[in-house]
Design brief:
Layout: H1 6-15, E1 20-22, E2 28-30, H2 38-45, E3 48-53, H3 55-60, H4 62-71, E4 74-77, H5 83-86, H6 96-107, E5 111-118, H7 125-133, H8 137-155, E6 162-167, H9 180-185, H10 189-200, E7 205-210, H11 218-232, E8 239-242, E9 245-247, H12 256-268, E10 272-281, H13 289-310, E11 314-317, H14 327-331, H15 348-358
Parallel strand pairs: 3-4, 3-11, 4-5, 5-6, 6-7, 7-8, 8-10, 9-10, 10-11
Antiparallel strand pairs: 1-2
The structure holds (3S,4R)-3-hydroxy-2-oxopiperidin-4-yl beta-D-xylopyranoside (XIL).
Length: 360
């Protein structure tokens, strides 16, 4: 367990026993706070609370839709805004799936974090080929960024005010990751991507997003240095996304001290900081499920509490129900990394988040 401040220990200690009740409005509330769903509590704090959304359960499961609309004020498309989905063939854009999620968000008063324009995964085969053989790869990347960002500026169901422009460009050692784009264009592809996104929509807030760079480690140092240099050079980068795919047990979550220090130094160079993809793996720890769920609630409480104090303005989970989480597919093991269980019942982690949001 990561070290934590006394404040969050005390508050989270109240969390585990909190009951979950339905209010007259149909919204759920944490009994111990007597207040509403996560998004209402987050509104009162002036932050967005978000979730990654998958198309199939959104279309097929009423409980998925209801929980999402009730609890969250921001959505991220888990997959369908990525290049392989939105530009499956060169010059042919397909926004059907992403528009459906954006329309749902708009209908429920939620904002959208656009994810993601430039990444080394989930690219269509044609784009991989263009980058590999050097057939004007800069034009292809620029056209992709323009196609997607302009759609959500002009013709989409709603504007997308925030984009993860570049995702996961660095290695754990803090070096430039070897990707189709670093090979095709060299390290300057980052600055180019941000400039093109800014040209496509000067009103959108543009983020660099990465994992494993939450605490004060080598990768976080490199992210900070890279963004400091880009900002100094006048590149339009406005924020950094800390993915926050963490777990219970020693070494699987940054200490609150390191997290606070990292957020502070990023904000000191003028960047907004968002948590973009949080989940907390249970299978990194030992002990029975109940103990693990309590430990998991503590991790959620520690991270959210630290982020609120440090000035994070948007806090997104990578999903919200264990019925639809990428973790089992990723680790190859069953897990339970999210605050709602597979039956959409809130877990101790849910109450922990509510409790921290409701605290002063
Ligand atoms: C993941 C999705 O959750 C999976 O469904 C997909 O198979 C692979 O991508 N970092 C990111 C996200 O930035 O886009 C990834 O999403 C998870 C890790």
């Amino acid at each position: 367990m990561a070290p934590m401040t006394a404040r969050f220990t005390r508050r989270a200690g109240l969390v585990a026993g909190a009951a979950f009740v339905a209010t007259a409005s149909g919204a759920h509330a944490d009994e111990s706070t007597g207040r509403g769903a996560l998004r209402d509590l987050a509104d009162a704090r002036g932050i967005r609370i978000g979730a990654a959304v998958a198309s199939r359960p959104l279309a097929n499961e009423p409980a998925y839709r209801e929980t999402l609309a009730r609890e969250f004020s921001s959505v991220t498309c888990e997959n369908v805004m990525k290049p392989s989905f939105v530009q499956p063939a060169a010059g042919t854009f397909d926004f059907q799936a992403s528009d459906a999620i954006v329309a749902f968000a708009t209908a429920h008063g939620m904002t959208v974090r656009g994810h993601t324009l430039v990444w080394h995964q989930q690219n269509p085969a044609w784009l991989e080929r263009v980058a590999a053989v050097g057939e004007n790869p800069a034009d292809a990347l620029r056209d992709h960024i323009f196609g997607v960002v302009r759609h959500y500026r002009n013709d989409g169901p709603a504007p997308v005010p925030v984009w993860d422009v570049v995702n996961e460009a660095l290695t754990d050692n803090g070096l430039m990751r070897d990707t189709l784009w670093s090979r095709a264009l060299g390290p300057r592809y980052l600055a180019d991507a941000f400039r093109w996104a800014h040209e496509a929509d000067p009103d959108s807030r543009l983020f660099y997003n990465d994992f494993g760079a939450e605490g004060m480690n080598r990768k976080a140092n490199a992210v900070h240095a890279m963004l400091r240099d880009l900002t100094r050079d006048g590149v339009p980068v406005h924020g950094v996304g800390l993915q926050m795919h963490v777990g219970i047990g020693a070494g699987h979550t940054p200490s609150v001290t390191d997290l606070a220090a990292n957020i502070a130094r990023l904000r000191a160079i003028g960047l907004d900081v968002h948590v973009t993809e949080m989940d907390v793996k249970l299978q990194t720890g030992t002990g029975g499920d109940e103990a693990r769920r309590t430990d998991q609630a503590q991790v959620y409480a520690d991270v959210l509490g630290t982020c609120l104090e440090a000035g994070v303005t948007s806090f997104t989970l990578w999903g919200f129900t264990d019925a639809h989480s990428w973790i089992p597919g990723f680790t190859g093991k069953p897990d339970g990394a999210l605050p709602f269980d597979t039956a959409y019942e809130p877990k101790p982690a849910y109450h922990a988040l509510a409790r921290v949001l409701a605290s002063d």
